[in-house]
Known about the structure:
By secondary structure, the protein is α+β, with helices and mostly antiparallel strands. 51% of the residues lie in helices and 16% in strands.
Amino acid sequence: xxxxxxxxxxxxxxxxxxxxxxxxxxLLCIAAGVATIVSLQTLAIMINDTLTGSLQESNRGDxxxxxEGGWGGNTTELEESIGTGxxxxxxxxxxxxxxxxxxxxGTVLTYRQPLEGLGVGWxxxxxxxxxxxxxxxxxxxxxxxxxxxxxxxxxxxxxxDEMLRGPNDIVLxxxxxEDLEAQVGDRVRVAGASQDFTVRGIVSTDAEAGFRNSGTxxxxxxxxxxxxxxxxxxxxxxxxxxxxxxxxxxxxxPSEVDEVQRNLDRQFWAVGVSSTSDLRDQNxxxxxxxxxxxxxxxxxxxxxxxIGIINTMLVIVSRRTTEVAVLKTLGLQPREITVLFLVEAIxxxxxxxxxxIVGGWGxxxxxxGFAETFLGQSLAFTIALRPALAGIAAGLVITTVFGFxxxxxxxxxxxAVVLRPSxxxxxxxGRLSAFVAxxxxxxxxxxxxxxxxxxxxxxxxSINEIVTGIGAAFGLLMALPIILGDFLSMRARRRGRSWxxxxxxxxxxxxxxxxxxxxxxxxxxxxxxLTVTTLLVGYMYLLFWWIIWAAGGGKLHEVRATALLMLxxxxxxxxPLIIVLVLPLWIIGRLIQRFAFIDLKIAMRGxxxxxxxxxxxxLALVIGIFTLSVITMLVxxxxxxxxxxxxxxxxxxxxxxxxxxxxxxxxALRVKLEEQGxxxxxxxxxxTYETQITSxxxxxxxxxxRNNQLSGFFSSVDGRDITSNLPDVKMEQxxxxxxxxxxxxxxxxxxxxxxxxxxADEGFWSNFSDFxxxxxxxxxxxxxxxxxxxxxxVVGVTQEVDITxxxxxxxxxxxxxxxxxxxxxxxxxxxxxxxxxRKVRRSLSEVPGTFVLETRFINDLVNRLxxxxxxxxxx
Length: 875
């Protein structure tokens, strides 16, 4: 036995040496698949290490505190903020500090100050360089305390407290500085600030990017961020110093973090607590999802690589038919020929896997930038042992499994080929052998996939019952041909055979294989994916086989066996495709064979003679291209749909926000827009007014609706200019506002209004979905001394959201109906000539607290988000 194995190994190594080019191609196929697995799993480990390491730095403390509810004078509601809409007051911060000093002495607290007001701090510009950036995150911090763990250093090595010495000092994130083309010493302007700031330093994007600060780090890495000291709040109108939307806590003893969290939850019900333990669980979940993504991509790559290995092994077998025939004449049995080729495949798998491991580590190093883009966080390169072991196992299993069918064909080569050395046709494998080999391939691939997938399918309903049934079906399908073949053999050669022994054995085979298949399926849920994948791949392979046969003008008797497959219901979905695609192509192919020039005929016949390998090659190409195409088309459809939505709904390409809301600001902004002349094709003013419903008359039921039921729904109204730039929303009833009809109230004193109907999934509000045209509403509008009642009549009802609304208002009406009252928010929509946008922006910035947002920035925002999430799958 040992001598025979040594012969197999020696012969295989010699064959690999003789067949240099084909051996090299096989090794490259294996190495490519293994390199994919190793690189992806190495990246997954790097991601996991980054997410689960340095938790205190990622959380910005042992504990992170956020306000979650009213807590007397210790918390306050913010009018508009980038954060939660609530903040701790200075009194609340002091109360928490006192509690920690009493129960956990030595605890250090610091906080982040929120900026209130619509658009305040959201944009930044560098006037001297004529650059600007929107959607920026602000970190208003105590420079001498932040962060309580780790250090934030500038690119020149300075700390935050060394750079932020005064209220006019600012530190930029590197990605923001690059977008602004700003350098240390430049002057920058922050939306809502009364004075400009001087750039004192630039820090690495990693300082805040990634999964830090309850997810704001992801946005910081995507859009950019800046630091200001809390003393800078005096430069923003209406900002109350000492507020904190997040408090970062460093304990004297970090091991007490869970105990402190429990005590905080009991003592302060209005305080939300996020600990490093919570962050560990959250990041572990994210890491698991990334692992799942890696698994899916790795399985696709393995499938493509496996098809390449099958083709390579088929070529090797076809080139060595004479050699196999000689070995058979020397006494080797068919099973020994199979073992010989399997040994060769295993050697190729091992050698190719070693090359794939090295290549995988190299790929992981070269492509970790894609993963860093995906996560918005830097990764430390790591050479891990687990991916290498998984790569070797994958290479050996894949090569053995996908090389098994060609080796079965090699065992069928007859010794008589020695007399016809030019014969290179591979004999067909027996149907039973091929079927058993296919089932074994699915089983082995399922085991490999299960190791990669882990618990990916655990949440699928009734998964254990489904895969148990699939496994039992496979066992039954294997048992029936074995029993049938044994029965036919008994009938052919009855002498010396015991029918009783076989009759007893057949039920054992039937029950045993069925039970074994069910047991295998129960513990290998990946069998479901491999079964579905095999069916889909089989459909595509058969379709390509038919297409190649038709294009080559094949004869009908060549497809007799394949046509019989169409009798099974599982293959019926292919029949329409065969009729639509294959039949016309076959007619063309037959015409080519009859009338075309000889070179084309020979080429088509050559393609026809290798249609099996051609079909598998097309299959590999289609799988790879389909995967990339799905990603590309998804990205393209999302961006185009959103771009079209912006064009249809906004009615302009520029949105103008104001930090202060008053009629004076509204008038000043209108005057400034009118001064732009031909630079602006059209514009529309919007203002949101706080309202209280006093009367609602349902005209369809001819009755009044109780006001307290609708008070929340009609808490605000959007007043709009109706001469241009109205929201292009689809009306379910009635019409949109019309400048020719709605410039003044009707004869009864009612102003027209359009209502957005609540959808069925909006909980309580879904009970009020019967608004109709003609309903009458009386609202008390304005605040303070500027209050009064206005009557409206509903002229249109829609269920589409007006994304240009200045608030979450469900009703909009002509602006003139509400002009006597003070607004809560002011906004303008303008359609500006593209070449004039910068000039218009500079002019509008003269209105205090105003910043301009181009709709293309919103579209760019969506594009960047989509690209962020598709960069890793594209890799």
